[in-house]
Design a protein that fits this description.
mainly beta, Immunoglobulin-like, 5 domains, five-stranded mixed beta sheet
Length: 539
């Protein structure tokens, strides 16, 4: 390039003045570091060109390829400047030119360090794929509810949200209906005009932009879907619903249907009395409310729900009951012996429910205390028994239903008097039995042994009728009234006690029983032993 030779020429003129001073120090580094003076390939090419330059008085411009090499490699350009400066003194002396290159090499910057390769640039951000499964969940006269699923391919940019767009059928004027991105996969498009046909589509949005839209296959008519109405009568109301007078009635009957059905009520085919019965209806149920039930509230209530030309009806029977009245009449139809026959008629007021039974009570005229003789009795007549002779009785009857027993009772006008009647008692005749029997010993005498001086008894038992006479004998001799013996005979048990028998009291004892029909005898042997005397006493 023509601008570079000028500074090189000035440098060549200044170098001879300092030739002698710079010669000595430059040679030492050249010899000390021959390896460092090795020029780069660019420097080697530049040296011959610069060495030839002093041969001419006028410097020639560098070759084109040399200039190109300096532009391509910055390292060669930096090395070329000191090389040109050192080549100027070489016009007089060629040999020192090599020495002059050493300081040029020493002043050259060190080679650049190797840097790790830079990472590849991030891939470009891409939008997601289109959302899927878009369809209408619900709609009414002013809104449409849609749902969808997220895109199958989301990519590395994630998913920021959705934009819901609509336009009227027949146009392509798409407008977003959500100001901010919709995060969920469900959206209600509100404030629409009834009867409009809308085309709807959903677009997924992320950092890569908008995804392809997913649209409904057909335009949606903004109008509520009509579902047939249906009354869902609870199980406990399918039969007769019974409540007591004064209770609060609160019945809820659910129903379904779209749009909101029109609910009407009737009682026995006539409109309801709003002063007595309150009706409150919502979108899902209708409530029949009576603050205080009365008998007149009983009847058949019918509920009708209607949607357009469709309707459904359900009926429930409400029965308000209370305690019954007493029987209409009670009378005594007959009295005999200890019994009274009663009859009565059902009550005029049954409490708006069937009579389940009757309770019959009696009272003695003397005391006036009432006692129940029959309860939960189902017939209209009864016989009262086990009454006391000579007493006068009154009778009354209560009626019962499922609520309870009537507060009052009907008392029979007549009184029942149990008369005293003469009774002839004839004892039964019994045939007398013959119990006569000859004496017979049921327990005989047993042989015994005793010791002198120790009392003993002989026992036996005998039966017979008439009562037999008992005689005790010793060795066939009647004992009689000998005080040594004590004779006892009680209830057929015969006992002979021998008091302190001696050596001569042993022998054969007999007991004889005798009556008019015969006699019987039993015997035993009694042995009386001597007491044993110790040897010490014998001496």
């Amino acid at each position: 390039m023509p601008s570079k030779p000028a500074p090189i020429k000035k440098a060549a003129k200044k170098e001879p003045a300092k030739k002698e001073e710079a010669k000595a120090p430059e040679a030492a580094p050249a010899e000390a570091a021959p390896a460092e003076t090795a020029p780069a390939p660019a420097e080697v090419e530049a040296a011959p060109a610069e060495a030839a330059a002093p041969a001419e008085e006028e410097p020639t411009p560098p070759p084109a390829d040399a200039a190109a090499s300096t532009e391509e490699t910055p390292a060669a350009a930096t090395a070329e400047a000191p090389a040109d400066a050192a080549a100027a003194p070489a016009a007089e002396e060629v040999a020192p030119a090599v020495d002059a290159e050493a300081p040029a090499d020493a002043e050259a910057p060190p080679p650049e360090e190797l840097k790790p390769p830079s990472p590849p640039p991030p891939p470009p951000k891409e939008p997601t794929s289109a959302p899927v499964d878009l369809f209408v969940e619900d709609k009414n006269d002013t809104s449409v509810t849609i749902i969808w699923s997220q895109p199958e391919v989301v990519g590395n940019s994630g998913l920021d949200g959705y934009t819901i767009e609509i336009c009227k059928d027949g146009t392509e004027d798409w407008k977003a209906v959500n100001e901010e991105l919709q995060k969920s996969c469900r959206f209600v498009i509100k404030n629409q005009t009834t009867g409009d046909r809308l085309k709807i589509r959903v677009v997924a949005v992320n950092a890569g932009g908008r995804s392809p839209p997913v649209a409904l296959p057909e335009a949606v008519l903004v109008k509520e879907v009509a579902n047939r109405p249906k009354v869902r009568l609870p199980r406990f109301l399918r039969q007769r619903y019974v409540a007591n007078v004064g209770e609060k009635i609160n019945l809820s009957i659910p129903f379904t249907g779209k749009p909101k059905p029109v609910v009407t009520w009737t009682k026995d085919g006539q409109p309801l009395d709003t002063k007595r019965v309150n009706i409150r209806s919502t979108d899902r149920d209708s409530i029949l409310f009576i603050r205080t039930a009365e008998r007149d509230d009983s009847g058949v209530y019918e509920m009708c729900v209607k949607v357009e030309d469709f309707e459904d009806k359900a009926s429930l029977i409400l029965q308000i009951v209370e305690l019954p009245g007493p029987p209409a009449s009670v009378k005594i139809v007959d009295t005999w012996g200890f019994n009274v026959a009663l009859e009565w008629t059902p009550p005029k007021d049954n409490g708006n429910t069937e009579i389940t039974g009757y309770t019959v009570q009696k009272a003695d005229k003397k005391t006036g205390d009432w006692f129940t003789v029959l309860d939960h009795y189902h017939r209209l007549n009864a016989t009262i028994s086990d009454l006391i002779m000579g007493n006068i009785y009154k009778f009354r009857v209560f009626a019962e239903n499922k609520v309870g027993m009537s507060e009052n009772a009907t008392v029979a006008k007549e009184e029942a008097k149990i008369l005293k009647t003469a009774i002839d008692y004839k004892p039964p005749e019994y045939k007398e039995r013959d119990f006569t029997e000859a004496p017979k010993f049921t327990t005989s005498l047993n042989d015994r042994a005793t010791t002198v001086g120790y009392s003993t008894k002989l026992l036996c038992s005998v039966r017979g009728f008439p009562k037999p006479k008992v005689i005790w004998m010793k060795n066939q001799m009647i004992i009689g009234d000998d005080p040594k013996y004590r004779q006892v005979c009680v209830q057929g048990i015969c006992t002979l006690e021998i008091r302190k028998p001696g050596n001569f009291d042993g022998g054969v004892y007999s007991c004889k029983a005798k009556n008019t029909l015969g006699e019987a005898t039993v015997s035993c042997k009694l042995e009386v032993k001597q007491p044993v005397v110790p040897d010490s006493e014998k001496k």
